[in-house]
Description:
Strand content: 5-15%
Mean pLDDT: 91
Number of helices: 29
Structural class: alpha+beta
Shape: globular
Low-confidence stretches: none
Distance between the termini: 39 Å
Radius of gyration: 25 Å
Strand order of the largest sheet: 2-3-1-9-8-10
Oligomer: single chain
Helix content: 40-55%
Amino acid sequence: MCGLTGFWQPTGCARDEAAATARRMADTLAHRGPDDAGVWVDEAAGLALGHRRLAILDLSPAGHQPMVSASGRFVIAFNGEIYNHRELRAELAKLGAGGAAPAWRGHSDTETLLAAVEAWGIEAALKRSVGMFALALWDRESRTLTLARDRLGEKPLYYGWQRGVLLFGSELKALRAHPAFVGDIDRGALALYFRHNCVPAPYSIYQGIRKLPPGTLWTLTAQQAMTGQASEPVPYWSLAQVVRAGQQAPFTGSDTDAVEEAQRLIGQAVAGQRVADVPLGAFLSGGIDSSTVVAVMQAQSSRPVKTFTIGFHEGEYNEAQHAAAVARHLGTEHTELYVTPAQARAVIPRLPVLYDEPFADSSQIPTVLVAELARQHVTVCLSGDGGDELFGGYNRYFWADGLWRRLGWMPQGLRAGLARGLTALSPQAWNRLWALAGGVLPRRYRYANAGDKLHKLAEVLRAHTAEAIYHKLVSHWWAPAELVLGAEEPPTVLTQPSAWPAVEDFRARMMALDTLTYLPDDILTKVDRAAMGVSLETRVPLLDHRVVEFAWRLPLAMKIRHGQGKWLLRQVLYRYVPQVLVERPKMGFGVPIDHWLRGPLREWAEDLLSERRLRQEGFLRPEPVRRLWEEHLSGRRNWQYLLWDVLMWEAWLDAGQARRAT
Length: 662
C-alpha cells in the first residue's frame, strides 16, 4: 500500500525542478508510505511521477517505485495489491517458449503488473488482475499516460488540470503541493457533500479536479495534453454489466449449493488477501460481515489471528462485548480498547487533514481509533466491508421497499396526514416508547434511535416514487442548493436513471446503487483515509470481484429471507460460529455526537457555527444552520447528522485547505 502522485506539464520542465516538485508532492503522502520514497522524470515530455511506499510484498529495494519495466518502455507508480500476482507470474512464464518470459528482479506485485502490461496491454492486464489499486502508467514509446482505479473503488485517485498542468495523486494534499494548484471551491460539489455527507465521484471539492470512477481507465496522449482535448474515463469492469450478466445466467443451485459456493469464493478471497511479508490481522466488530471474514481467516491459519475492536462505555454505541464473544469462540488473539469520550473527541481536530476533503460520516472517529489500535500490532488488516451492499444488509432496503408496497397506493394528502401524525411526538418520546415496547416487537423492528428514524420516515412519506424514497433515505440535507450560496447540484448516478443497472426489484436496485455510490464514496473512503493515516493497509475480501459477480447471480431470496438480510452470509458464518453469538439488531459503528454537541463539543461547535463566521465566509446561508443548532441544543430535535456535515465542512475550511469566497 502506498501513495502516488505526479504531474504532466506538456510544455516541458527542467529535470531538477520537476524532480523537486514531484518529491514535495510525494512527501505530503508520507503517511501512506513511510518506508521508501522515489521520483522519476521524463524531462522532454514534462512528466514526473512521485511515490511513497509502505512495503508489504518484497521489502527489498527491488520493490522501489516509480518502477521501470524490464524493456524500459513503461514506468509505473502503483498503490495497492495484486493478490493473484503469483498466478500471473506463472502465466507470464509460459510465454518463455517465445522468448518473452520476464527475468524477474524481485517478487513484488508491481513488477508482475508491469510485465503483464508489456505482455498483454494495460486493459487486459487489469482484467486478469485480482486486487485493489490505483496507478499511473507512463508509456515512453507512445508518450501516453494512463490512470486506472480498481473495480470497486477501494483505492483513491484524483486528477485534473490546473493552470495548464495535469495533476494527479492519491490524495488532494499532494495536488495542493504543486505550484500550479488553484484550489477554488466547486459549489455544486459542496451541495452534493451536504446531501450525501461526502463528495461523490467523479467530483471533488475543487473546481477542475475529479475523482477517477471505480473500474475505469483514463488515457491521455501527448497530442491531447497539448490541445486540452482529453477523453472521458473508459470502464474495463462495469457493475451494470455484472448485474446484467447475473440476470442472464442466474444461479440455479440449491440453498446448500449456494452456501458451498459462497464459502469457497470467500475462502479464496481471504486466502489471497492473507499473503503479506509483514504482520497481518483483522477488524472484528462482532457483526455478520467482519465475523465471517475472521472466521474464514482463522480456519485457514495455524496460529491465532490478531483481531481488533474499539469499545465504548455508552451501551447504545458499543459492540465490543459481541466481538469479544466471537473472538473467544474462534480462538483469535483479540485486542480491544475501550475509549473514553475524551479520547474519541481528541480525534476530531485531525479529521480535516486526515480526510483531506470535507467528509462527515461520524463513524470516521471510531474507524480512526480502531486503525490506530491495529497499527500498534500489524501492518495489514482485513475488513468486512461490502457485505451489506452485496447481500442486502442495510435497514433502508426493508424500510423503503416495505413503505412503498404498503403506502405507495395512498393519495398524497393521506400520506401527508400520516407524516404529521409521526411528527406529533418528538424523537425522544418515540425512543422511550420503543424501549418500553422492545420486548414485544419483532426482532427486525428493534431499531436503535427509532425516534429519528420515524421522523425521517415522516419526510419520505411525501415522496412520489419508490426511487424518490431511496434518494431521500440516502440524503442528509434534502435541499442543499438552498443551503450553499450560488450552488446548483450537478448530476450524479442517483439522479440519472439511464445509468442505473437494470434490475426490476426495488431492493436489488437500491443494493446496486449503494455499490456504485455509497460504498466507494463513503465507506471505502472512510476506511482508506483512517487506515492510511496511520500507515495501515486494509483489505476487503468481500469485494473480491469474483465474490461480487457471484452475489449478483443469486436470486434475491438467497440474500433477503423472512424479513432479514444477508441470509447467505449468515449460513456461511453459522458453519463457524453459533447463531446466538451474532444474531442481534444491526448497529452502526458510531459515537454519541448528539450528546457531545450539547456538552463537551458545544463551545467548539458554537464557534464554527456562528452567524458572523458563516456570513463572512460566504459559502452557506446562516439561517437554516442556526435554526438546526438551536433546536438541537434545546433537545427538541436530534440534528447531529446535518450539523456534523456543517461542522466538518467548517473545520476543513478552517484548516486552510480552501480559498475563502470572494
